[in-house]
Amino acid sequence: MIEGAHGEYLIREIGLTLPELAPVAELHHEVLPSRAYTTADKKAGFAEEIRASLDGRDGLVLGAFTPDGRLVAYKLGYRTGNRRECFYSWIGGVHPFHRRRGLYRAMTHLQHRWALQQGFKYVETHTWGDNAAMMILNLQEGFVAIGAISSPDRAGARIILRKPL
Ligand SMILES: CC(C)(COP(=O)(O)OP(=O)(O)OC[C@H]1O[C@@H](n2cnc3c(N)ncnc32)[C@H](O)[C@@H]1OP(=O)(O)O)[C@@H](O)C(=O)NCCC(=O)NCCS
Q1: Among 28, 94, 107, which is best to mutate for testing ligand 1, by the most ligand atoms less than 8 A from CB?
Q2: Is 77 near ligand 1, meaning CB less than 6 Å away?
Q3: Which of 9, 27, 40, 57 minimizes the number of CB atoms within 10 Å of its CB?
Q4: CB within 8 Å of 12: residues ≥ 6 apart
Q5: Domain ranges of the chain
Q6: Which CATH class is domain 3-120?
Q7: Which atom of ligand 1 is nearest the CA belonging to 100?
Q8: Which ligand 1 atom lies nearest to the CA of residue 103?
């Protein structure tokens, strides 16, 4: 079980069962403004999407908890690529009240340390170019832009970022 701490927060691995993933799906919809008004069905569906995406792919779900056990941040990803050496850091976020306290940076460090121990050679992530907070944090953490994917239904592009471990 991977575990760490940042100030008063406990950071630990979350299992891939639906009851354990339900709070992650709930928080995901609070963290992203575009998802705030979704339905209970969609949230439940997202917990299942996480489970299906990570199961059997060396997935890791990290959660950060307050001392009274509330989940306030999450970060998750899984193995990709033919050579099985890339960890794809898929999604993550921090509840607005708990931002700018270094929590996501601490979770990033823990994720990368774990990925190195597992034998991954690099981490990749996709970030929308207009997501300043995530872009800045990722660049500070040693990611470099290696490409971009445009979307037909949204202006701008997702920037492909890679960091050797
Ligand atoms: C991006 C996000 C995860 C950062 O979480 P956080 O815990 O607040 O980040 P940290 O406190 O670890 O910040 C580390 C550094 O990143 C940069 N940063 C973080 N938020 C920033 C912001 N809003 N604007 C500019 N820089 C920012 C800063 O350099 C910061 O260091 P500093 O506070 O010492 O200046 C959080 O803003 C979030 O949940 N955003 C919405 C979710 C999201 O966009 N997810 C990606 C799609 S899945």
Answers
A1: 94
A2: no
A3: 40
A4: 1, 2, 3, 4, 62, 63, 65
A5: 3-120
A6: alpha beta
A7: 11
A8: 7
Task: Work out the number of other CB atoms within 10 angstroms of the CB of residue 53.
Answer: 17
Contact 88, 99 (CB under 8 A): no
| Terminal alpha carbon distance of the chain | 21
CA distance 97 to 103: 12
Indicate which atom in ligand 1 lies nearest the CA of residue 108: 12
pLDDT digits (tens, 9 = 90+) for 2-34: 999 999 999 999 999 999 999 999 999 999 877
Atom of ligand 1 nearest to the CA of 106: 12
Ligand 1 midpoint to CA 158 (Å): 17
- Beta-bridge partners for 152: none
Please list the ranges in the chain whose pLDDT falls under 50. none
The residue count of the chain comes to: 165
136 lines ligand 1 (CB under 6 A): yes
Question: What per-residue confidence (pLDDT) applies to 40?
Answer: 84
